[in-house]
Amino acid sequence: MNISYVKVATKILKYLNDCYENGLELNIESLNANRLGILDRQYYQTLKMLTDDGYIKGIEFLDVIPPEMSQINHPRSWYITSDGIQYLEENSLIRKAYNTLKEANDWLPLM
What we know:
There is one protein chain. 55% of the residues lie in helices and 7% in strands. The protein is built from 4 helices and 4 strands; from the N terminus they run αααββββα. The strands form 2 sheets. The protein has a two-stranded antiparallel sheet with strand order 1-4. Helix 1 (5-22) packs across helix 3. The chain is globular.
């Protein structure tokens, strides 16, 4: 299970944004480590980074030792921030530009 931070963060933010845009309540079954294909520790750390960066609000962390026993509150109080939405939009634009340049590069003869 070697999934990058960007991929995991984007999946989490997309889910939170979809819930926001459609007025849906978050579902723990749709947003958990197993569903994302990652370990609990990576899930926890990713949520912590997203919160520290201001992309998500409403998460309460209970850090304990050992870290595997750390807990977070139920997602019904989590929400994406305007910075999180902006991150998603910028990430999407960068990906589209990359794909366009890659496609154009495939069409152009090598020099």
